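Ticket opened by: R.M.
Priority: normal
Category: complex prediction / small molecule

The reporter submitted a protein together with magnesium ion and asked that the result be attached to this ticket for the collaborator who will pick it up next week. Submitted input follows.
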Amino acid sequence: MEKVYYNGDANEQYLQSKKVAIIGYGSQGHAHAQNLRDSGIEVVVGLRPGRSWNQAEQDGFQVRTVREATREADAIMILLPDEKQPSVYKEEIEPELQPGNALVFAHGFNIHFNQIVPPQDVDVFLVAPKGPGHLVRRTYTEGAGVPALIAVYQDVTGEAKETALAYAKAIGAARAGVLETTFKEETETDLFGEQAVLCGGLTSLVKAGFETLVEAGYQPEVAYFECLHEMKLIVDLMYEGGLAWMRHSISDTAQWGDFISGPRIINDSVKAEMKKVLEDIQTGKFAKGWILENQANRPEFNAINRRENEHLIETVGRELRSMMPFVKAKQKEVVVTSAK
Ligand code: NDP
Ligand code: MG
Ligand code: MG
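Result attached by the on-call engineer:
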């Protein structure tokens, strides 16, 4: 097995003399900024005036424009949406970079697909938590952490990897485990995971199961509980003890059905399609489509998003969750998003 790094393998000294600019204060940004601060690292947040700016100030941070934050800092962590990074980088970050600075990412997309080309005299590395930002924060406050990948793209100081490990430790990731990878591997596996399994695969599986039951005349509410609500309970068991622990916990009837029917659903043709999805990621075809979609102001993204939010599973779900006070209801109204 590859080496997994933990707290004992990381030395926070590599960050302690440095000021870290967290650019962006969204899902990842607020978590990194707060975890670093709680770990004793000096943080400045870089933003444009608006909602996030006010929030970061309320949370007690020094907030500056992206330009000023970059100028003040030794390490610049870019936590803007991936599709917005290239223009902000070009206009506000690149002009302020000093030799020996560290340019840091949480996902390799823009470096790997050449949307950001950094100067040769700075360190470039990534620290990519394998989990959503609000969990990066919550687990940290609970004394735990979300695992992360680190990768070094450019090492001019000779300390890029040590600094990446120190950063991973400071956000709590080294409590859970840190793996070293490359920008290529992180980018391609992250895109594949979210498309084929975690987000795309899962939502399509849930919807197909729900629709099959509803089209056969079963109550949508029953179908919702069966195909969506119960998913979390099953996934929690897998998270705690792998497939075996989940299978130990369910009935033998359910386990037999899992063995016999699961491979009929996710069959060879599904796997063949997964390979094509992976190929589109590896060849840059997916990246190109997403970059162009943003340049066109997201016509397809917004159309699909609207249609998805009107799906019966969503309207039934909103209704049912409102009766479950223990489920913290998170309503997301459909907003038309723009690449600008
Ligand atoms: P979010 O969409 O949550 O963050 C957006 C932040 O960027 C907001 O604070 C927003 O501020 C700010 N912003 C947007 N445009 C500008 C601009 N022009 N100038 C200044 N600030 C701006 O991003 P994520 O946290 O989801 O993603 C950040 C990075 O982390 C990405 O590289 C992503 O791939 C990676 N990542 C994300 C994960 C996740 O869980 N979401 C998991 C692992 C990695 P405002 O309020 O002004 O719009
Ligand atoms: Mg991703
Ligand atoms: Mg059952």
